[in-house]
Amino acid sequence: SLRNTRVWPNVDQPFSLFFADNETPKENSQFIFVSPSFEPKLNSKGVLRVDAADAIPVPFNLITTTPSALKTLYRGSALDLKVVAKIQQRSATTIGKYWRPQMGLYKGQGFKVSKKEKDDSFLRGMPVVGANYDAHPYLVVKDELDRYEGNGLHRPRDPKIYRAPLVLVRKGFRNERSRGRALFSPSDVAYSESFYGFSAPQHLDGEFVIRYLFVLIHSSIFEYYTLM
User: Residue 177 and residue 137: Cα distance in Å, rounded?
Assistant: First the structure.
């Protein structure tokens, strides 16, 4: 919460401070975790508040078995740890593991423009969705798009990730669902590195899977789980 403040100047990534005893922890050892809150008046002076009331005892074995536990405790509380664990226990797989070529499903980040010459002939003439697309919050409006012209690409990616039906997930997760966190495209489109594409051109029920993923991404449970 204190990145980009005078507490830790010129650092825009999460950081942590450790105070440790130089000895091997025992099986039932734990440490105390404190995540200071953002307090503009204090932080602008390079000061942070460490509140004992916010100190949470964390068993070492929790971190080794659940690497995301500290993020969950930062965003939520010990109760959220239980909720996240329950979601994971009831999930047979993840989207990443399910979405594989053997199922006729393809995924990847969009093309990246550079001066390097890569074969991008399969993209030429396709409608292009860029970072500033705003024709519709949820839908790719093909008629509003410019056509792709070869500009040299760093990585054009796999041609299959541009084939419809498609869900294009924005690289920046938007807080407001009404602004759209992803776009649905019923037709082939080229898209830039500002999007992660999920394509189902060869799946037996591709359009249903894509629409299901689109709705899931805009659900409260997806937002909660991602943040936790």
Answer: 9
| Cα–Cα–Cα angle for 198, 202, 208, rounded to 5 degrees | 65
Give Cα separations from 21 to 27, 35, 63, 137 (angstroms): 15, 20, 18, 52
Question: Residue 185: beta bridge partners?
Answer: 166
β-strand partners of 33? 56
Cα 194 to Cα 131, 132, 169, 183, distances in angstroms: 5, 9, 9, 12
Q: Spell out where 79-186 has E strands.
A: 106-109, 112-113, 128-129, 153-155, 166-170, 182-185
Of the candidates 99, 154, 166, the residue with the CA atom closest to the CA atom of residue 126: 166
Reduced to 3 states (helix: H, G, I; strand: E, B; else coil), residue 87 is helix
Cis amide prior to 59 (ω within 30 degrees): no
Task: Please list the residues that pair with 198 across neighbouring strands.
Answer: 107, 167
18: alpha, beta or left? (left if phi > 0; alpha if psi -120 to 50): beta
Q: What is the distance, to the nearest Å, from the Cα of residue 182 to the centroid of all Cα atoms in its chain? A: 12
Taking the C-alpha atoms of residue 84 and residue 63, their distance in angstroms, rounded to an integer, is 14
Q: Report the predicted TM-score, pTM, of the whole model to 2 decimal places.
A: 0.79
CB-CB contact of 128 with 148 (8 Å): yes
CA distance 42 to 44: 6
Reported as a single tens digit per residue, the pLDDT across 13-69 is: 888 888 999 998 888 899 999 988 899 999 999 999 988 888 889 999 898 888 889
Tokens of 141: 């409006």
Task: State both tokens at 149.
Answer: 């012209």
